Amino acid sequence: GENVEQHPSTLSVQEGDSAVIKCTYSDSASNYFPWYKQELGKGPQLIIDIRSNVGEKKDQRIAVTLNKTAKHFSLHITETQPEDSAVYFCAASRGSSNTGKLIFGQGTTLQVKP
Amino acid sequence: GAVVSQHPSWVICKSGTSVKIECRSLDFQATTMFWYRQFPKQSLMLMATSNEGSKATYEQGVEKDKFLINHASLTLSTLTVTSAHPEDSSFYICSRGHQNYGYTFGSGTRLTVV
């Protein structure tokens, strides 16, 4: 079945450094790849997403890259700040209308040390 | 942006009783909504896909008679945990997909069965 693998499970960086989280997916029909930030006791919040017709997308300090051939995608956070500390999840789904199943990676706990 | 409202945010119930969780799509009609379960320090696991006007589609290993899903309108899906047991204690999260806004998640419901 569909599977999304996410690494690392924990990541600790110094404030101002960059953080990179990587995911691989198994379903070659996947075409939508969002990243979520989840704070304790809350639902996931979308921070950036990318579709399969795009190789890279950037939004201020956050960027996502997609390699369809290798079936992996990565989240890049530059100039990290303590408020970036949270659990980050990658996910993948297929379909054009976002009504298909969204499969999550295992999550990465990011700690940004001041 | 899209808004998904989930209630209650937390609930404590006695073992053997049933609990209903509501998920409302406040701004867009949603023919499809999703229910996830998240145990502490783990990822979101899809339980079922809720389809307006028809039966829900359950993921493998999820008991449909225990987790009753009703999607009677285009703005409301409910999850009822029947005959709850302590092992059902978890964080339950609903979501809605939209072709323009991606997947939006509710704030989650912390269920504790005592």
Protein model, in words:
The complex is a heterodimer of chains A (114) and B (114). Chain A is built from no helices and eleven strands. Chain A is mainly β. In chain A, the strands form two sheets. In chain A, strands 2, 4, 5, 9, 10 and 11 form a six-stranded mixed sheet that branches. In chain A, strands 1-3-8-7-6 form a five-stranded antiparallel sheet, with no helix packed on it. In chain A, strand 6 and strand 7 form a beta hairpin. The termini of chain A are far apart. The mean pLDDT of chain A is 94. Chain B has 114 residues and is an all-beta fold. In chain B, 0% of the residues lie in helices and 54% in strands. In chain B, the strands form two sheets. In chain B, strands 2, 4, 5, 6, 9, 10 and 11 form a seven-stranded mixed sheet that branches. A four-stranded antiparallel sheet of chain B has the order 1-3-8-7, with no helix packed on it. In chain B, a hairpin with a 5-residue loop joins strand 5 and strand 6.
Q: In DSSP terms, counting alpha (H) and pi (I) runs of 4 or more, how many helices of chain B?
A: 0
Count the beta strands of chain A.
11
Structural class of chain B: mainly beta
Parts with pLDDT < 50 across at least 5 consecutive residues of chain B: none
Helix percentage range of chain B:
under 10%
Largest sheet of chain B, in brief, is: 7 strands, mixed
Oligomer: heterodimer
Helix proportion range of chain A:
under 10%
Net shape of chain A:
globular
The largest inter-chain interface, given as chain pair and residues per side, is: A-B, 25 and 25 residues
Residue-averaged pLDDT of chain B: 92
Overall average residue pLDDT of chain A: 94
**Percent of residues in β-strands of chain B:** over 45%
